[in-house]
Structures are given as structure tokens and as C-alpha cells.
Design a protein that fits this description.
Layout lengths: L2 H31 L5 H26 L3 E6 L1 H6 L5 E5 L6 H11 L6 E6 L8 H7 L3 E3 L3 H13 L9 E4 L8 H13 L13 H11 L5 E8 L9 H5 L5 E10 L7 H25 L6 E4 L5 H24 L5 H25 L20 H8 L1
Parallel strand pairs: 1-7, 2-5, 2-6, 3-4, 3-5
Antiparallel strand pairs: 1-8, 6-7
Helix pairs in contact: 1-2, 1-5, 1-12, 2-4, 2-11, 6-8, 8-10
């Protein structure tokens, strides 16, 4: 990490991790005191508390980096967003797709109940992973034998969620890279499937299970297609922290859950067809640099995140001043050493957060045909499992 980047990231990291630990502590207290007696009471409180942390990252997108998001959608979708439970599926195009989901959720007053199905290691991330665990995000091990009962139980527990929630599921199972696309294309060619050009092959098991478990209480699926315009540098966490702007085009489409097929096989095919249509849509976007036949909507840049971050910053500055005045840490080499170590730890934690978000470091999709010990192509094994 370059020194100029570190000079920016350390202050942001101090703000994020100190405020995050305060939020985690409040979450833990209410988890112990309130949740055993009123699960929905805890959920309502946690929704407000965790938003005070997650909105800091929305502030980085909106105000610090100045990322602009152009939304293409119809009036029906726009009208229903934030007023209902929804399963959100998207192509995993950039390193910050999940953060774009938070930006949308914040605009429609459900940031604190923006949940996700994520890999198990995510919950170990200091502050942000812990906050997600307290908020009932679902963590999977990418082993279906273990994940199926975990997923079903977690989804059923959302049945009585008291306020509108969004549950994000990246059906491709991993972030998009050219290497993963080549592997997906090889797999598709060897198995007589449509060869993808802009997306990876969807992994339908999680989606089918989600639909079957949530059909009775989640009325909608929000289909989100993320595209990066020509001559635009893809956004990353590092670019955000360094205050470098970017532009994203996002196509949103609402599908009524009741319109989906009834059988698991048909739901899986519906998902595959959706990604075929998404692939074609992204082809058109490459040509026209926009999503054709869609209305463009401005989602604005609300002041709420700016107010929250400013309040956190003032509280941190005041608390730091009082602490140093009381402790006299700045007056001794020992105190300066302790401060330096704390700042170094913050820098390392921020580096971990940045690296965790990078697509090159994400777990690759297992789509490359190869022969296993029994002599059977892993392509055929994959087909049997799906």
C-alpha cells in the first residue's frame, strides 16, 4: 500500500473500526438482554443500530469517492422498493456490488435490514462481519451437504421478520473475472450449454432452495444487472477509500414471486433463462453504453450519511481529546509506541478488508471440466449435483 493511500486510509479506518466496535458492543448487549425475550424487538433495535455503521460505507460511496449510480428501471419496480420483503439477485460484476446493494437499500429505508447469503469466512471480518452476524445474515461453507440445512433454517427464521428486508444472493457464486469467464465458457462448450459472454453460469441450488422456502412470505425478486460504462475504471474498495470517483449503470427489474414456476426443476431453469437474458442485455449495453428501453432515475445523494459520519467524527475527536488529556499518552515514548501499534493494527485491518473484497482473491468457481479419480468428468458430476 502506497504511503499516500495509507495516509488517507488510516483516519478512515480509525473512524470505521472505533465506531464499529461501539456498534458491535451495543448489538451484543441487546442480543443478550432483549433477543431471548423478544426476537422481533431485538430486530427492530438492531436495524437502527447497525445502520449507524453500515451507512459509513454508503457515505464513502456517495460523498467521499463521489461514485455516481445511474438506475434504469420501471415505475412499478421503483414504487415497490423498500415496501416489501425481496430476494435480490445480481450479476457479480465488480468488487463492490454488495455495497451498491447497501446504497439502494439506504435510499429506500431498509439498510438496517439488508441481509445477504455469504461465505462463512465473511463473519470473521472484524467489525463488519460481526455486525452481519448480529443482523442474521446467512453464512455458508460452500459444501451443499452442510449448507442445505443451514440455508433452510436461516430462511425460515426470516418468516416473521417485522420490517421489509432485502436478502441478497449472488447466484454465480463468485465474483466475475476474465479467468473465471474462460473457465465457465470451457465448461459450457463441453456440456452443450449456451456459452456465456458477460456472466458466469448460475449455481441454481441456493436460488431454488431460497425460492421454495421464501415463496410464502417474500412477494418479489429484484433482478439487478450491474454494468460498467465504457472508459470508466471499475470501482474497488481501495479506489473508494482513496476518494477516486466512478460510474455504474444498474438495471433493476421486479419479478413477482407468485409468477415463478412451481417445481424445483422449472425454477432452476427460470434462473438460467434469466441469466441468459442478462447476458444478452449486457451485450446491448456494451454496444450502446446504456440499458436500452429503460427509464433512467436519479437516486440522489441524501444528507443522512453525511450527518451520521460527521456525528461519529465529532464524537471520536472529542473522546480522543479527553482520553489523551486523561492518560498523558502523548507525553511518553511508551504512550507513543502504543499509539503507533494501534494505528498499525488499523492499517492491517483495512488492508484485510480491501483484499477480502478483491475479485482476484475471491474463491474461483468450480466450472473447469477435469477428470476425477473415478475417471468421470467433473462436468458430469456437476450436472448430476445441479
Amino acid at each position: 500500500m502506497a504511503i499516500p493511500a495509507a495516509a488517507v486510509i488510516v483516519p478512515l479506518g480509525v473512524l470505521f473500526f472505533v465506531s464499529g466496535l461501539i456498534v458491535n458492543l451495543i448489538q451484543a448487549i441487546f442480543f443478550v438482554i432483549v433477543r431471548p425475550f423478544s426476537k422481533n424487538g431485538y430486530r427492530r433495535i438492531n436495524r437502527m443500530v447497525v445502520e449507524l455503521l453500515w451507512i459509513e460505507l454508503v457515505w464513502i460511496v456517495d460523498w467521499w469517492a463521489g461514485v455516481k449510480v445511474q438506475v434504469y428501471t420501471d415505475s412499478e419496480t421503483l414504487e415497490m422498493m423498500g415496501k416489501e420483503h425481496a430476494l435480490v439477485i445480481a450479476n457479480h460484476k465488480s468488487d463492490i456490488d454488495w455495497l451498491m446493494g447497501w446504497v439502494f437499500a439506504q435510499r429506500y429505508e431498509c439498510l438496517g435490514s439488508a441481509l445477504a447469503i455469504m461465505k462463512k469466512s465473511s463473519k470473521l471480518l472484524p467489525v463488519i462481519g460481526w455486525s452481519m452476524w448480529f443482523s442474521e445474515c446467512l453464512f455458508l461453507e460452500r459444501s451443499w451437504a452442510k449448507d442445505e440445512p443451514t440455508l433452510k433454517l436461516g430462511l425460515q427464521q426470516l418468516k416473521d421478520y417485522p420490517q421489509p428486508f432485502w436478502l441478497a444472493l449472488f447466484v454465480e457464486g463468485t465474483r466475475f473475472t476474465q479467468a473465471k469467464l474462460l473457465a465457465a465458457q470451457e465448461y459450457a462448450s463441453s456440456n452443450g450449454l449456451p456459452v456465456p459472454r458477460n456472466v458466469l453460469i448460475p449455481r441454481t441450488k441456493g436460488f431454488v432452495t431460497s425460492v421454495s422456502q421464501m415463496r410464502s412470505f417474500v412477494p418479489a425478486i429484484y433482478d439487478m444487472t450491474v454494468a460498467i460504462p465504457r472508459d470508466t475504471t471499475p470501482p474497488t474498495m481501495l479506489r473508494l477509500f482513496k476518494g477516486q470517483p466512478s460510474l455504474l449503470h444498474v438495471k433493476m427489474k421486479r419479478h413477482a414471486m407468485k409468477d415463478l414456476p412451481e417445481t424445483d426443476e422449472a425454477v432452476a431453469q427460470w434462473c438460467k433463462d434469466l441469466f441468459l437474458a442478462k447476458d444478452n442485455l449486457l451485450d446491448k449495453h456494451k454496444i450502446e453504453d446504456t440499458f436500452p428501453d429503460s427509464e433512467v432515475h436519479d437516486i440522489g445523494r441524501p444528507f443522512k450519511s453525511l450527518v451520521v459520519v460527521t456525528s461519529w467524527a465529532c464524537l471520536l475527536v472529542f473522546g480522543t481529546y479527553k482520553f489523551f488529556h486523561w492518560s498523558n499518552l502523548l507525553s511518553s515514548w511508551k504512550g507513543l509506541t502504543v499509539i503507533s501499534i494501534c494505528l498499525a493494527v488499523i492499517l492491517v485491518l483495512m488492508q484485510i478488508l480491501i483484499q477480502f473484497s478483491q475479485s482476484e482473491r475471491s474463491t474461483p468457481a468450480n466450472v473447469t471440466p477435469r477428470t476425477n479419480n473415478g475417471g468421470e468428468s467433473s462436468s458430469n458430476v456437476h450436472n448430476k449435483q445441479e
